[in-house]
Design goal:
Elements lengths: L1 H19 L2 E7 L3 H15 L2 E7 L1 H9 L6 E3 L4 H8 L9 E6 L1 E6 H4 L4 H11 L7 H9 L5 E4 L5 H12 L3 H4 L3 E4 L2 H9 L5 E5 H6 L4 E6 L7 E7 L6 H12 L1 H9 L14 E3 L5 E3 L3
Length: 291
C-alpha cells in the first residue's frame, strides 16, 4: 500500500511539473514538420518549455492567424505570407527572418519504379549507384511519359506545391500533366495520398521524402530547377512568450542546427532575415551586430 501511495504521489508530482512548463504555440508549414519534430526535444530541453505544434499549409495557417488564431511563432514555408503579416502589423518588429531553404524531391511508388520501362530502369540504376539527384533529362523522361498521376500540395496554399508547378512549366511538362494532377492540402497530406496509391508519383519536399519515403523511391530535385523556397519565421505580435519565441529563432539559425537541417533535407541559410547584419533583441527592437 505504501509503495502504491508513493508511486501515485510521484506520478502526480511529475504531471504537475509537466503542466508548469510554459508552452510555445508554433504554427509550422507541414513540409517542415518532420524537421521540427526531429529538433523539438533538443529545443524543449534548452528552453525548459513545451512546443505545441500545429502543422498545415502556409496559406491555411496564414488565414488562421489573420482570423485571430493564437500562435506565438509562425514557421512559414515561404516569405510571401510573413511579408503580408509584417505589412499588416501582426508581427514583432524585426522578427521576420529566414530559418531554412527548401528543396524538392521526385517520389515514385515502388510498384511503378519496378516496371521495366527505360525511364524507371534508369531511376533504379541511379539509386543503386547512390546517385540521388535528378538530371533534367531524367526529370523530363520520368514525368513526360505514360499517364501516371502526379501528387503535389495545393499551389495556392503550399509553397512547395507552387514551386513544383513553376518547375513543371519551366520544363514544358505542364501541358502533359495538368489533367493528371492530384492536389493535396499540404505536404504531409501529399505523402499520405502517395502511400494510399492516389498517385504513382509526387513532387514533395525533400525533407518529407527523407522522413517518410517508405513505399517508394525518391531522388532530390536540384534547387536551380525551381524558384528558391525561402522558409521565413515571424513572431506574432500578441505572444506572451516573446523571449522564448526569440530563443526558437536563434536556435534555428544557430550553426549546429543549420548543419543538422542539411541532413534533414534543407539548405542552410546565407544569413538571417533580409540582411545578414540585422538581428532581434528580446524587446523586439532591431539592432545590428556592431552595437
Amino acid at each position: 500500500m505504501l509503495k502504491r501511495f508513493l508511486l501515485c504521489s510521484l506520478l502526480l508530482l511529475l504531471a504537475g511539473c509537466h503542466r508548469d512548463r510554459p508552452e510555445l504555440r508554433v504554427a509550422v508549414d507541414a513540409g517542415f514538420q518532420p524537421a521540427m519534430e526531429a529538433l523539438r526535444g533538443d529545443f524543449e530541453a534548452q528552453c525548459n518549455c513545451l512546443l505545441r505544434v500545429t502543422a498545415g499549409s502556409s496559406g491555411l495557417l496564414y488565414s488562421q492567424i489573420r482570423g485571430g488564431e493564437l500562435f506565438d511563432v509562425f514557421l512559414s514555408g515561404d516569405m510571401a505570407r510573413p511579408v503580408l503579416l509584417e505589412k499588416a502589423g501582426f508581427i514583432v518588429p524585426a522578427s521576420r527572418q529566414e530559418y531554412a531553404r527548401g528543396q524538392l524531391a521526385l517520389w515514385v511508388s515502388r510498384q511503378l519504379s519496378e516496371k521495366k520501362s527505360a525511364g524507371f530502369s534508369t531511376l533504379n540504376a541511379e539509386l543503386a549507384s547512390n546517385r540521388t539527384e535528378l538530371t533534367p533529362r531524367q526529370l523530363i523522361l520520368l514525368l513526360g511519359k505514360g499517364k501516371h498521376r502526379l501528387v503535389i500540395a495545393d499551389p495556392q496554399l503550399a509553397p512547395d506545391g507552387d514551386a513544383a508547378v513553376k518547375m513543371l512549366k519551366k520544363f514544358r511538362l505542364w501541358p502533359r500533366l495538368k489533367n493528371r494532377m492530384v492536389y493535396a492540402g499540404h505536404a504531409g497530406h501529399a505523402q499520405i495520398l502517395l502511400h494510399q496509391g492516389e498517385g504513382e508519383m509526387g513532387v514533395i519536399p525533400y525533407g518529407q521524402a527523407l522522413a517518410s519515403g517508405r513505399g517508394g523511391q525518391y531522388m532530390r530535385i536540384p534547387a536551380h530547377f525551381h524558384p528558391p523556397i525561402h522558409h521565413q519565421l515571424v513572431i506574432l505580435r500578441n505572444t506572451r512568450e516573446r523571449s522564448r519565441a526569440i530563443q526558437l529563432l536563434q536556435y534555428l539559425q544557430s550553426p549546429p542546427v543549420q548543419a543538422r537541417l542539411e541532413s534533414l533535407g534543407y539548405l542552410a541559410i546565407a544569413g538571417t532575415g533580409d540582411s545578414p547584419d540585422k538581428a532581434i533583441s528580446p524587446d523586439g527592437a532591431r539592432v545590428t551586430n556592431s552595437e
